[in-house]
Amino acid sequence: MQLKTNDNKYGVIRKLNHWTVSIMFISLLAVGFYMADIPASPEKWELYAMHKSFGAILLPIILIRMLWLAFDNKIDNSKLTKLERIGSASLHGSLYLLMLIMPVSGMLMSMAKGYAINVFGLFTLPMLVEKNEALGVAMANVHFYAGNVAAGLILMHVLASLFHHFIKKDDILKRMV
Ligand code: HEM
């Protein structure tokens, strides 16, 4: 078991991070769209509280993931065509950007609307912005549209890895599993 990425194999920290963030991010997208759509009820507010708590703890996990990239080695992508390399770099870059935009916009939306963020009933985050309805609405729009873009890009990312595995029959998917 190797800690760092090496030639054509991802290191264990990179893999652990990839799958933890993927499961949490996709669950937050699904629950987010669902909870925003259902009528007001105790179940809805319970889902909001869970969504906010998981979203808030995902931010430091994402920051650690990004920090680790600076210390880890690059994966060997020399077998990919130039077009594939450009496609993968821009898709991955956009996903990293959205991984920051989603939790930050969610937190700013809640705080600007005057709602505190209590993480699993354990502690409350300091209010970083004062109540500001216009900022709250702007952040809600960012959260909604960026969520839609993220869902589309994740679908493309999954389809691309399945294409490599089943059609091109290379090891792109295997090296992340
Ligand atoms: C990476 C993390 C996150 C993802 C992927 C995510 C995803 C989503 C999605 C897809 C929606 C539905 C948007 C809509 O239909 O309007 C949503 C709604 C919401 N999210 Fe997040 N979210 C994340 C983090 C957060 C955080 C950290 C907070 C606050 C602490 C938060 C607070 C909310 C709230 C309050 C709503 C309901 C908005 C409304 O009622 O219009 N989210 N989220």
Question: TL;DR of this structure?
Answer:
This protein is mainly α and 177 residues long. The protein has 4 helices and 2 strands. The structure holds protoporphyrin IX containing FE.
Structural class: mainly alpha
- Beta content comes to under 5%
Overall mean pLDDT stands at 96
Q: Ranges with pLDDT <50 over ≥5 residues?
A: none
* Neighbour order of strands in the largest sheet: 1-2
Distance between the termini: 13 Å
Summed up, the helix count is 4
User: How many structural units, i.e. domains?
Assistant: 1
> How many strands?
2
What hetero molecules are in the model? protoporphyrin IX containing FE
Overall geometry comes to: elongated
Q: Radius of gyration, rounded?
A: 18 Å
H/E element string?
HHHEEH
Helix content: 55-70%
Largest pleated sheet: 2 strands, antiparallel
List key phrases describing it.
177 residues, mainly alpha, two-stranded antiparallel ribbon, 2 strands, binds protoporphyrin IX containing FE
Question: How would you explain this protein's 3D organization?
Answer:
A hairpin with a 3-residue loop joins strand 1 and strand 2. This protein has one domain. Helix content is 69%, strand content 2%. The protein has a two-stranded antiparallel sheet. The protein has 177 residues and is mainly alpha-helical. It is elongated. It has helices at residues 12-37, 42-71, 82-112, 133-167, and strands at 118-119, 123-124. It has four helices and two strands, in the order H-H-H-E-E-H. The structure holds protoporphyrin IX containing FE. The site of protoporphyrin IX containing FE has 22 residues, from helix 1, helix 2, helix 3 and helix 4. Residues 25, 28-29, 32-33, 36, 48, 51-52, 55-56, 58, 102-103, 106-107, 110, 117, 140, 143-144, 147 line the site of protoporphyrin IX containing FE (HEM).
